[in-house]
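Me: I'm a chemist; would you kindly supply a protein sequence with its structure tokens?

Assistant:
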Amino acid sequence: MQDLKRMLQDIHAEVALTRRYIKRDKLDDAVLAAMRKVPRHAFVDAEMRRYAYDNGPLPIGHGQTISQPYIVALMTDLARPTRESRVLEVGTGCGYQTAVLAELAAEVYSIEIVPPLAELAAERLRRLGYQNVHLRTGDGYHGWPEHAPFDAILVTAAAPTVPPPLIEQLAAGGRLVIPVGEPAFGQELRLLEEGTDGELETHDILPVAFVPLTGGH
């Protein structure tokens, strides 16, 4: 409990530090409640559990990481999932961001390209009782067109540019949150909002560092 309280305090501190980038003084209460409810230690290996509530990324194997809690909270806040939302996540990873989204959305569709990570995430999410999560092993660059359109799309790995299939699968009024850029040249967390007229508004939120999106594209 103390570790969780410390994590939430760290998230509040990060919000204050990045206020000029993210243009807000606090994150949504529902997002913070979801962060409070999901046991982050259940999504990392035993040897990493002592660090589970530190405000930093952790390795999860296969060259992938579980994102910093603040970034998970911020991306969720930017996506604005509601009880009526259908959400697509590209990059299930260990399943932690998936669980946070599942606390807030009606349905979460999540794609992971690394089979062992996909299998482990499925086992963890099933054990924790999440019944509104649908998982798929594959290349998330192409999205999940059978279940589109999505009210929100989160991408948990950096792409050089925003994948066109994801834009196509965004619902009118939807929000796409994705880190964009190359590690050598810097990455930006980007928010794309689609208006009811189909026009996209793009906002660069803050500098980030993510593992690269992989796949045949």
